[in-house]
TrEMBL record:
Gene3D superfamilies xref list: 3.40.50.360
Domain Flavodoxin-like: 3-142
Stated name of the protein: Flavodoxin-like domain-containing protein
Transmembrane parts of this sequence: none
GO molecular function per UniProt: electron transfer activity; FMN binding
Amino acid sequence: MEAVVVYESNFGNTRKVAEAIARGLGPGSHVVEAEKFNAGHLKPGQLLIVGSPINAWRPLPEISGWLEALAPDALSGIRATSFDTRVKSFFHGDAAKKIAHALEAAGAEQAAAPTSYFVEGKEGPLLDGELERAEQWGAQLAAEKVG
Ligand SMILES: Cc1cc2nc3c(=O)[nH]c(=O)nc-3n(C[C@H](O)[C@H](O)[C@H](O)COP(=O)(O)O)c2cc1C
């Protein structure tokens, strides 16, 4: 599946989730850090997945900055969705939904609802089963079985 997973990560957990999603998406999918990715290289019909850890209730500045720099129609014709990594707590805030709104504001069509993966503490590790869940999500996205 022609897909790009764009991410940023402080301690590597979000990168591992991005890589697991790409494994599920299958051949033709790429994983790239936001600061190295130019949205102008996306082709119509391609799937874009953007992920960030939640830091202080929001995405990392590198992800927010990248999204804010997109022109209003930069993602027209692109299917997109998002994910975040977070701790299990009442006060986790949100990054995936904020990313999803920004993707839509840039003209993307929502390919699936935003989702979250959990870490044990600030530096991780990811909870058991999260990488498997991420890989499954990628496979479902490739098969268009999630809405
Ligand atoms: C400065 C800082 C702020 C954080 N704020 C939140 C938060 O508001 N909500 C939350 O659920 N997790 C928060 N966390 C935990 C992160 O979600 C966790 O570090 C992240 O998921 C790990 O992913 P990474 O290895 O890709 O950076 C915070 C972590 C740091 C270092």
